[in-house]
Amino acid sequence: MAFLEATSITKQYGQHLVVDQLDLFLEKKQILAILGRSGCGKTTLLKILAGLVTPDRGTVLIEGKPIQERPLPERGVLYLYQEALLFPHLTVEENLAYGLKVRKQPKPQIAQQTERMLQDLELSTHARQFPSQLSGGQRQRVALGRALLVQPRLLLLDEPFGALDPETRSSMQLFFREIANQYQITAVFVTHDLKEAITMGQQWALMENGRLTHYHQLEDFSKDPKTGLQQEIAFWRKIEHQL
Predict the structure, then answer these.
(1) Mean of the per-residue pLDDT values for the chain?
(2) Is a pLDDT exceeding 80 seen at residue 116?
(3) If you write DSSP's letter for every residue of 77-132 in order, what string do you get?
(4) In terms of Cα–Cα distance, which of 24, 12, 37 is closest to 227?
(5) Residue 39 contacts residue 210 (beta carbons within 8 Å)
């Protein structure tokens, strides 16, 4: 049994079929990278997986239990947007600790876990700063750290690095992979960027017209003409030949 399993998910808004009998499966401690163009239904899919949107048909199971049957606090699903959505009036340290305080964790435990996360995020020297004093990449690190501190069972990432400049985006991709391995994250990561999908995933899928194609190996993903990788390789080979 897969940790996350979605079966025959369908969602329609008016005459527009956004998600069409989609099937999805994900093993625990794995990252599924979903590649898809804007408007293909990626965000709607994530919201359905989070239980924020109810599908017209189909079921979403986490560890074999329908997500809608779990009370919201017990779902253990966190959704990260492109914007960091930090509290502007709280420091980095306070933003990180927020979820633990809401869950009424003991103060010594909050302090210990927050300090460790600051170190893991390489933000110890920024602990007393406010979000407005941070770079875009630093704000996303804080958002990621805040999510990880409450130990989500499933992390859903909606193009979280899309608003960053290329250099910062690249460094955040590598940083996320390191953190994912360290904290053994189970996640669905959606992106329209081919390189990012390859970098972030341990499993891969392509979303087109509301449907999902899964690939068992990166080689299968790479060889499918629909992903665009072979065309991109051919383009750069042509440029290299011209230099």
Answers:
(1) 90
(2) yes
(3) EEEE-SS----TTS-HHHHHHHHHHHTT--HHHHHHHHHHHHHHTT-GGGTT--GG
(4) 37
(5) no
Beta bridge partners of 19: 11
For tokens 């048909």, the residue is 57
Give phi and psi for 190, each to the nearest 5. -105, 145
pTM (global) more than 0.70 = yes
φ/ψ region of 51 (left if φ > 0, alpha if ψ in -120 to 50, else beta) reads left
Q: Which CATH architecture has domain 4-242?
A: 3-Layer(aba) Sandwich (3.40)
Residues 221 and 229: their CA atoms lie apart, in Å, by 9
Q: What does the pLDDT read at residue 228?
A: 81
Using alpha carbons only, what angle is made at residue 218 by residues 212 and 220, rounded to the nearest 5 degrees? 65
